[in-house]
Amino acid sequence: MKYLVVLAFVALASADVKNVRQKFNGATITALNEQITRELQASYFYQAYSQYFARSDVALPGFAKFFSEASKEERSHAEKLMEYINKRGGDVQLKEVKLQDVCDTVSKGLDSTTLSFTKTTSCICNFMTGDVTVLSGFDCDKSKRDDWHNGLLAMEDTLVLERYVNEELLKLHKGHDDDAHLSHVLEHDFLDEQVNAIKDIADKIRQLKRAGSGLGEYLFDQKL
Ligand SMILES: [Fe+2]
Questions:
Q1: Exposure string (b/e) for 155-180, b if CB count within 10 Å is 16 or more?
Q2: Which member of 58, 62, 176, 184 has the lowest number of beta carbons within 10 Å of its beta carbon?
Q3: Which of 4-8, 93-97, 173-177 has the highest mean predicted lDDT (pLDDT)?
Q4: Whole-structure pTM value
């Protein structure tokens, strides 16, 4: 009897969701859930950087704060998308979020990009693990950890990741441009911010290159 009551409740609840959903198809919901995972991955990646810069053997508090804020911002993007799916009567599905997946994505971007970067691999995953035997190529050799704390390398990773997220948002927009409301939300709440973020990070890369390491980086960190 109890089982039947629960079933009836579930049936009623799903009918209520259907009352909300209008021209919001399964493919769109899947694509939005995938974007949620990307935003959460970016949040995790920036959190790793924030903790890295907060270490006493790196000690760049400005960069630590910058990446902590970036992490919170990415999480808020994921939450915005979750709220949007619920608003349109879809199902939010949270997937696995792994730091290594983001490092792989960024390394791919660094490697294939036509932009001129200092390195070809994202090292933060290696630096965040306690296993000293884990090395993946020259760039991420832990014995060079002391030489690596240059914020420029972190900003290059950030630019690649922001460009990747932007690319995926543009695909999402193009693939579902018959959904006027979704297009509006993507354009106003996401794409504009991505363009601004890319410009801001590209500026920071140029300034860091100009400042160099040592005192230049210290002064840059102070104003972050
Ligand atoms: Fe984002």
A1: bbbbbbbbbbbbebbeebbeebeebe
A2: 184
A3: 93-97
A4: 0.87
Distance 167 CA to ligand 1 centre (A): 11
Quote the distance between the C-alpha of residue 219 and its chain's center: 27
26 and 174 Cβ atoms separated by less than 8 Å: no
As a whole number, the mean pLDDT across the chain is: 86
The three-point CA angle 157-125-82 to 5° equals: 70
47-89 tens-digit pLDDT: 999 999 998 888 999 999 999 999 999 999 999 999 999 999 9
What domains can you pick out in the chain, each with its CATH number?
A: 23-223 (1.20.1260.10)
- Supply 160's token pair: 């690649």
In whole angstroms, give the CA distance from residue 7 to residue 93: 22
Instruction: Please give the pLDDT value at position 172.
Output: 94
The phi and psi torsions of 151 (rounded to 5 degrees) equal -65, -20
Q: Output 112 or 85, whichever has higher pLDDT.
A: 85
**Interval between CA 149 and ligand 1 midpoint (Å):** 25
Q: Which residues surround ligand 1, an ion (CB under 5 A)?
A: 39, 74, 77
CA distance 63 to 61: 5
Give the pLDDT score at 110. Answer: 83
- In the reported structure, the alpha carbon of residue 13 is separated from the centroid of ligand 1 by a whole-number distance in angstroms of 31
